[in-house]
Structures are given as structure tokens and as C-alpha cells.
Specification:
This protein has 15 helices and 2 strands. By secondary structure, the protein is mostly helical. Strands 1-2 form a two-stranded antiparallel ribbon.
């Protein structure tokens, strides 16, 4: 009897399928979560004597209503999508990776180091930054993986706490040894050479990194749906006890799922510094890791759901920037809407925890 056959025999219930969406149920949960959050957001605006429909109209016009806004939405999809994948991949084996923010920062730091201090010729800078970004994010996630597999430490807690360590780690370099000595005394690294900047595919800001998101979503679907590794990962996520009894190395899958997710988040950091910023600086992530976490959960950890969620949050993020100028609302108003969506998603999830002998 093969390992796969044993896993099928011992698994209590089928492992979660890896389709693009889980039929009508996923679409309904997606729509209900957004609708409930929008209604609650409208009530918050009414409490401040602000017209909810007028506010949403301003956000729509600023994001989807103009060519510039639509382009900026796609620009946001790059970090949102990659950070969402960093959550979705470990989620398929039953893990909760809240460390996308820290993995993003370390990936950006590693990519900047490869560009500025590797001494490589111009043609090799982008490939080196790509490898360094993925390696940096993966190595940071490996800390969480070791704590989870060897020490049985909850990965949600350890990954979340390591975010703050990563941010201060990067701050040390941009305020200290990597600070541009020829700059205006700002905590920035030296500017990257033109050869180290990702080419744009539309306008001045939408870089070729948008292809990273597309490739990542398709690869996730194909690997989980059609490969032995993907099947074993789904078995581990569905019932780790049965998977282990069937001979599947559960610890190995947990480790590499977290490392793979961290590597993807590291690529998001690489894309930010080489596609948008052109240097390393403090606060390089505007909560990209946390918004990616929310997008992954709203999208059910499935490729098409993640894509729709990232487009939604991209539109909210771009549209929210206009609220302060057009309506005099605080810039953090849009964060209220995202938080309400998170609460609606969590409230709508069924408790699938089962007690096993």
C-alpha cells in the first residue's frame, strides 16, 4: 500500500481541495463579509456626520474611476498579493503565518544589500536581488519554522513578534552603517543604480513584479492540485495525525511551507525596493504584510479568491488616500474599513476544530 493510499484510508474526511474558489459558498462568504463591513463602516461615518454614499463615491472615483487610480490599484496588488501568498501557502498545511511584515522587511534588506554591496556587474544586480530577497524572507521564516517544528511554539505568536524585531533590525542599518553619507541626513540607504531597478510595464510605477503575483497564484494552484507534494500538503492540513501515521513527514512539510511563504514575502520586499523605492528606508512597508494576511483569509487561501481580495484592498487603499483631502477625514479612516472586513471574515468562519483520539 502506497503512502498516498494509506493517507486516504486513515484520513477522517477528505483533505481540503485546492480549486480556485470553493464554489458558491466561498463567493457568498466573500460577498457577505464585504457587505457587512461596508454597512458597519457606513454607520461609523454616520456617527461622524459624514455621508457614507458620498464617501464611497469619492473612494471609487479616486481608485477605479481614473486611469491613474486603476494603475495604482495594480501597484498595490504586488505587495498585497505576494504577502497573501506568504500566508496561503503555510495555511494549506494548517499553519498561521502572521509574519509576512517582518519577512517583507528582511527580504527588502537582503535585496538592498545585494544591490549596494555585492560588487556585481549591472546585469547581475536584479537576479542577485531576487535571490537575496527570497533567501532573506525564507531565512526569517525559518526561525518560526524551527520554533514550531522543534519547540512546538505557536507559529502565529512567534511570527507576529518577530515582525517587530525585523523592523528594528532594518532600522539599525538605515540609521547606521547603510545610511547614505552623501544624502541630506535622512535615514536612507544610497540610491540604487538604474540597472538594479525592475522595468515598468505600464506608466512609471507598475513594474514587471506584477508577473510575480500571477506566476505565484498559478504555481500555487498547479502544485497543490496536481502534484504529490500538493496532495501530501493538503493531507497534512486536513489531518496531521493521520498524515503522520501514514508515513508523511509532517514536520518537513510544516518547515518548508513556512520557509516557502517567507521567501514569497521576501520577494515582495525585493519588488518594493527595486520596483518603487529605489533605496532602503524606514517604514518601507505600509502594513503590507498585515493586509496580505487579511487578503489571504478573505480569499479563503485560494488563488482566485486572493486575487479578488487584493484588488479590493488595493482599491480601498488607493481610494482611502483621497478621503483626507476631499472630505477632511483622518488618513487612518480606511484602516477602520479593513479592520471591519477582518472581523466580518473571522465571524463568518466555521469552527472546524475537531477533538481526535
Amino acid at each position: 500500500m502506497t503512502v498516498a493510499t494509506q493517507a486516504r484510508a486513515r484520513l477522517r474526511g477528505q483533505p481540503p481541495r485546492s480549486g480556485w474558489l470553493v464554489g458558491r459558498g466561498a463567493v457568498l462568504r466573500f460577498g457577505m463579509a464585504v457587505t457587512v463591513a461596508m454597512v458597519a463602516f457606513g454607520l461609523v461615518l454616520l456617527s461622524e456626520s459624514t455621508n457614507p454614499l458620498g464617501t464611497l463615491r469619492v473612494m471609487w472615483d479616486a481608485s477605479v474611476g481614473t486611469e491613474f487610480g486603476r494603475t495604482e490599484v495594480l501597484v498595490k496588488v504586488i505587495p498585497f498579493g505576494l504577502c497573501a501568498l506568504a500566508v496561503a501557502v503555510p495555511a494549506r498545511v494548517g499553519l498561521i503565518n502572521v509574519g509576512g511584515e517582518g519577512q517583507f522587511y528582511v527580504g527588502a534588506w537582503a535585496a538592498a544589500g545585494a544591490v549596494l554591496y555585492s560588487g556585481l556587474p549591472g546585469w547581475a544586480l536584479l537576479p542577485a536581488a531576487f535571490v537575496a530577497g527570497a533567501t532573506g524572507g525564507g531565512a526569517w521564516a525559518a526561525l518560526v519554522a524551527v520554533l514550531r517544528v522543534k519547540g512546538k511554539v505557536n507559529e502565529a505568536v512567534s511570527s507576529l513578534l518577530l515582525n517587530f524585531v525585523a523592523i528594528q533590525f532594518v532600522n539599525y542599518f538605515v540609521y547606521g552603517p547603510w545610511k547614505d553619507p552623501r544624502g541630506p541626513n535622512w535615514p536612507f540607504s544610497p540610491k540604487f543604480p538604474d540597472a538594479a531597478m525592475l522595468p515598468t510595464v505600464y506608466g512609471d510605477r507598475l513594474s514587471i513584479a506584477i508577473a510575480f503575483v500571477a506566476v505565484g497564484l498559478v504555481a500555487m494552484f498547479l502544485v497543490l492540485r496536481y502534484t504529490r507534494i500538493g496532495y501530501h500538503a493538503r493531507v497534512v492540513g486536513g489531518n496531521a495525525v493521520a498524515a503522520e501515521r501514514s508515513g508523511i513527514p509532517v514536520g518537513r512539510y510544516l518547515f518548508w511551507a513556512l520557509v516557502s511563504g517567507g521567501a514569497i514575502a521576501g520577494l515582495a520586499g525585493m519588488a518594493e525596493v527595486t520596483g518603487i523605492q529605489g533605496r532602503l528606508r524606514p517604514g518601507i512597508s505600509v502594513n503590507y504584510g498585515y493586509i496580505g494576511f487579511l487578503a489571504a483569509w478573505l480569499g479563503g487561501h485560494r488563488p482566485l479568491g486572493i486575487l479578488f481580495a487584493c484588488l479590493l484592498f488595493g482599491a480601498i487603499s488607493v481610494g482611502g488616500d483621497s478621503l483626507q483631502l476631499a472630505l477632511g477625514l483622518p488618513g487612518s479612516t480606511v484602516n477602520i474599513l479593513m479592520a471591519l472586513i477582518l472581523f466580518a471574515v473571522l465571524a463568518g468562519r466555521k469552527n472546524r476544530t475537531q477533538v481526535r483520539a
